[in-house]
Amino acid sequence: MGSHPHDLPMPVPATAAGREGLEALLRAPRRSVVALDFDGTLADIVPDPDQARAHPDAVPALAALAPEVAAVAVVTGRPAGVAVRYGGFAGVPGLEHLVVLGHYGAERWDAVTGIVHAPAEHPGVAAVRAELPGFLESIGAWRGTWIEEKGQALAVHTRRAADPEAAFAALREPLADLAARHGLMVEPGRAVLELRPPGMDKGVALTEYLAEVGAEAVLYAGDDLGDLAAYAAVEKRRADGLPGLLVASGSEVPELASRADLVLPGPGQVAAFLAALAATLRA
Fold first, then answer.
1. Predicted pLDDT at 9
2. What is d(CA 87, CA 38) in angstroms, rounded to the nearest whole number?
3. 4 has a pLDDT exceeding 80
4. Using one digit for the tens of pLDDT, what is the confidence trace for 265-283?
5. Active-site annotation holds for 37
6. Could you tell me which residues are beta bridge partners of residue 262?
7. Strands (DSSP E) along 223-281, which ranges?
8. Collapsing DSSP states into helix, strand and coil, what is residue 50?
9. Is there a contact between 197 and 122 (Cβ–Cβ < 8 Å)?
10. How far apart are the C-alpha atoms of 175 and 194, rounded to whole Å?
11. φ and ψ at 154, to 5 degrees?
């Protein structure tokens, strides 16, 4: 192999820590994990989340890369089974050992078994499910907003409202109060507020999975506020001397893009980067 990142047909991370993370992955791919968010990273953001599908180049890139590294994991707020269906991950040659950590790690799907392991539903989710439609109507915030059922969580989307940002700002505090009354928390995202149980986030999920695999290096790619916890987990590992590369898909979320080592325009470019990485490791 012996390639140096500056010679690769791929973007070079803007930070020294990111370049070190990429070099570590290239030097010891069998001890490295590639972990990625789904929506906005492997799949383009669409007005209706039920219509989201993996970018056409994403699964081929992952299938080429997975056999070259220790493990590939998809870390998503979606239910694990939904991410598998929308991603088209099941039964793909090369992805026999893919893991999908759904609901921020509360659920897990392993390609090797095809089984989803999920916890019992938090009672607060059931309570909020019953209360949420009337709650939105009572505060006059139902016009253009809609509720997405996520099994272990519920999400209120404002993307279709006349003024999505104003609706998001108006809902943030009332939904936080509602969530707190039922022992839940609110996770903000791009034109969406998700009410879910506390205690699990992408950082916890990623940290536990990396420990399980015994990873020495990690690449993590995400696009939204929910990915900040995973970024923080990688940053903590780097502080402990374990290299990592942080990739942002898009720059719509400045809090994330400003902490990324490498910012790519979107899922198509993320897939191209993964494919270039795979080609380099196979060379």
1. 67
2. 8
3. no
4. 999 999 999 999 999 999 8
5. yes
6. 247
7. 244-249, 262-264
8. helix
9. yes
10. 9
11. -130, 145
Q: What is the DSSP string of 58-69?
A: HHHHHHHHGGGS
pLDDT band at 144 (very low <50, low <70, confident <90, very high): confident
Dump strand ranges (E) for 44-103.
Answer: 71-75, 99-102
Can you tell me the distance from the alpha carbon of 66 to that of 30, in angstroms, rounded to the nearest whole number? 10
**How remote is the C-alpha of 9 from its chain's centroid?**
25
Residues 57-108 pLDDT 10s: 999 999 999 999 999 999 999 999 999 999 999 999 999 999 999 999 999 9
Active-site residue identified among 7, 37, 50, 227: 37
pLDDT number for residue 142? 61
**Confidence at residue 49, expressed as pLDDT on a 0 to 100 scale:** 87
| Tokens representing residue 87 in the block | 């991603």
Determine what percent of the chain falls in helix, strand and coil, rounding each to the nearest 5: 45, 20, 35
pTM summary value: 0.87
Helix (H, G, I), strand (E, B) or coil at 43: strand
Residue ranges in 77-217 assigned as alpha helix (H): 80-87, 123-138, 164-181, 202-213
Q: How far apart are CA 4 and CA 75, in angstroms?
A: 29
Pairing of strands 217-222, 32-36: parallel
Adjacent-strand bridge partners of 220: 35, 246
Cα–Cα dist 261/3, whole Å: 20
Residue 268 CB partners (closer than 8 Å, separation 6+): 44, 55, 57
Place of tokens 């490498």: 262
